[in-house]
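Hi V.,

You were right to ask for the full record rather than a summary. Here it is.
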Amino acid sequence: MNVRPTSLLPALFPTIVPPEPFLDEADLQRELGTLPAAPVVWQVRSLDSTNRCLLEWAPQGLPRYFCLAARQQTAGRGRQGRAWVSDPEGSLTFSLWSVFDRSLQELSGLPLVVSLGVLEALHSLGITTVGVKWPNDLWREGRKVAGVLVETTRLSSGQVGAVIGIGLNVALPPAVQEAFSLSLNDLRDEAGQAPARGTVLGRLLNTLIPLLESFAQSGFSPFAETWMTHCVHRNRSVTLRHPDQTLSQGECIGLSPLGGLILRNPAGDSQTYHGGELSLRWEGT
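Predicted structure:
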C-alpha cells in the first residue's frame, strides 16, 4: 500500500511543501488494509489550504481518492468564506479528491453523504454521541466537532471533480476552544483520551470511500433516511438565514432526494431548501 509516496506526481508539489509524515503510518496501514484499492495519502507539515491545493493541482491530473493531509493549515477554508482554525497537535485536517459522472445539481447531496461517513467512522471508533447537522457539520453533545467543505470543478473529460475537505477536532487545547465564539467539542473521552489521528484518518477513509462509490452509482436518495436518523435537529423548529439575511422558519421533517432540507412552516405547508449559503440554527445554538 502506498500511503506515503516518494515519487508520485512530484511536479504537483512545491519544493517548499515536501512530504513530511506526521501520522503513525502503522495506524494508517492497519485501517486502510481492507480497502480493495487503497487511496494515496500525502502528508505535509504546513500549507495554506488543502482544498485550494487540490483544486489547483486537479487540471494536471490527480489519481482518484488522493488524500492530502496537513499537520497545520494557515488558511483553512470553511463554509460561507469562513476560516477554519486548527491546532497542529489537536486537529485532523485533510482533503480528499474524487471524480463523479454526475451533474453539479446531483452533487448537492455530497456534503451530507460525507458527514454521514464521518459519523459512521466515529461511531465505529466508539464515539457514539456524534450527530449530523444540515448540511455539513457534525455535533457532539451540543457542540461542533467537525465540518465538511466540498468544492467542485468541471473537468475536460466532462466529469465533475470534487475536493472534499474535512476538519475534525481530535483533542483541542482549551486556548483553541476559547478562541471561537461557537462552542466546540472534540473526540476525547471522560478520561481525556482521544484515538490516534492516524487511526482516525484511516478509519475515515475506510468508511468514506465505499460510501462515495455508492453515491457515484445511486446518488443521495438512498442515504436520506439514515442521515435523518442521526440529525441533531430532526423534528425541531429551526431557523434558516439566507444570504440576504432574511429568515425562514419551520419544523425539520426530512430531506429531498438531492439532500435539500424540508421544513414545515406554522401553516402546515412544506418547502425544500438547498445548502448553498444558508445558515441553520435552532433554539439553544
